[in-house]
Specification:
Elements: H1 7-22, H2 29-36, H3 50-73, H4 78-95, H5 97-105, H6 116-119, H7 127-138, H8 147-166, H9 174-191
Helix pairs in contact: 1-2, 1-3, 1-5, 3-4, 4-5, 4-7, 4-8, 4-9, 7-8, 8-9
Length: 196
């Protein structure tokens, strides 16, 4: 069966596979080129550097994470949407653990940074959280405050829990951990002024 994908797509797919299976150190231009069936120099016709290749791969993953967000909060009342939005974040972390670690827990030269990149809506993953926070503030479910700082606080809280879970600091099943994370987020929301 002939593979009709573009060479650049094949390169990105191999890089993503290596990233997920073995981590970022495994993604070398030489290794990716060999797996695709092109010369190491030919890969540079598609990606000028390893960093550009990894950026292409991770940018596509941000959209997949947003899809997880959307699926989890669809049809939920506003009171529950922030909690279930984080369910999508957890779903992604469990489904793509090494990509999750690389994208959210490792220093990267082209990573978005707070405050400028976030306040200018350059973060495809924090934007939906900030939008939901703004909506909750407008509806009176959260106290009026800096939307981006509250969104960052909410995300950092969830990220801390998930990072600890990924580091095996809990003796809970995935389901038990999800319930614990939801309870902790509900407490955080109450502290931020959400209605009980």
């Amino acid at each position: 069966m002939k593979d009709n994908r573009k060479t650049s797509e094949k390169i990105a797919d191999v890089a993503l596979h290596l990233l997920e299976e073995e981590g970022p150190a495994a993604v070398s231009m030489r290794r990716v080129a060999k797996a695709v069936g092109i010369t190491p120099m030919a890969i540079y016709n598609h990606f000028p550097s390893r960093e550009a290749l990894l950026k292409k791969v991770t940018d596509a993953e941000f959209q997949k994470l947003c899809d997880f967000f959307e699926a989890r909060q669809k049809g939920k009342p506003l009171e529950q949407r922030l909690v279930y939005l984080v369910d999508g974040y957890l779903d992604y972390a469990l489904a793509r653990p090494r990509v999750f670690d690389y994208v959210f827990s490792k220093p990267r030269a082209n990573a978005r940074r707070f405050p400028k990149d976030f306040r200018t809506r350059q973060s495809p993953t924090l934007n939906p959280i900030a939008d939901t926070v703004a909506e909750a503030m407008k509806a009176g479910l959260l106290r009026k405050d800096d939307v981006w700082e509250v969104a960052l606080e909410f995300w950092a809280h969830a990220h801390g829990y998930i990072t600890l879970y990924r580091a095996e600091r809990f003796t809970l099943s995935d389901h038990q951990f999800r319930l614990l994370l939801r309870r902790s987020l509900k407490r955080l929301l109450q502290g931020l002024g959400a209605k009980p």
